[in-house]
Write a structure and sequence with these properties.
It is built from twelve helices and eight strands. The chain has 317 residues and is of the alpha/beta class.
Amino acid sequence: MRFKVPSRKKMTIKRLYQMRHIGTPITMLTAYDFPTARALDTHGVDIALVGDSLAQVCLGLPSTTRLTLDEMLHHTRAVARGAVHPFLVADMPFGTYYASPEDAVRSAIRMVQDGHMEAIKLEGGLEIAETVRRISQVGIPVMAHVGLTPQRHTALSGYRVQGRDAAGARAVLDGALAVQNAGAFAVVLEAIPHRLAEYITARLSIPTIGIGAGPGTSGQVLVWDDVMTRWHGKKAKFVRRFADVGGEEGRGVQNYVGAVRDGSFPDAETEGYEMGSGEWETFLEEVGDKGWRSAVDRIQGHQKDDVTSCEGFKGGS
């Protein structure tokens, strides 16, 4: 469905709460560099998330747990330069907020001061509530993340749906309530049954952002490379492809290689530059190569010879 993107104002937490209140779905999409950030800014995305998924889709690492804080900061700065209107959130990399609340606060401050982010995202529920509280108290907004927490995929024995039985569902709910009570301004619900996600959304007073959590949340988030079909790893059930950018990239590279190989790129006249009238001849004379001719000159010379030959043939008939 096509729609006209309205003139944009800077997204704020207050506006996100207003959207939740009136039932306008919130859109969040990951961005990792200036070009993807510009796309989000231009086309109406509400929240730009610099996700730690960049470890895999941008850096080729085997999991998000390998990403360092310094690597994340490099990408957050690029996104901040490109995304002017969306609200800016970034994942706190694995290991930057578990040692102690004080350690987490220091890392969060770097994300704001050095990374130019407006908020940070933490994975976990009850166990990180105090950390959420401490970071919020110093004035840094916190988005929480419960359900499937990818940074703990090893402990979870893989990327598995959470909350499928009553006890698991209660644990996800308790985690969401705990981070809300600790001061989180929003919470991501990942890979949980859709009825549970809708119930948690009804129980909370803060926006919920779903990923693999059904349509009953306050908004949705997906990974850029999944949306654009640029990630060729395993496709999660909840991923929908909205464009085939990966396919177009492949065709573009193949066409480029073919054009270079067959000599059709670049074209000297339409994609090249010329010297001023008489300057090329002057240059050749100065360097002592007056008889040198370029490939284009040789082709044009042959064409002239062919025309002359045809005219001579006509004249003798």
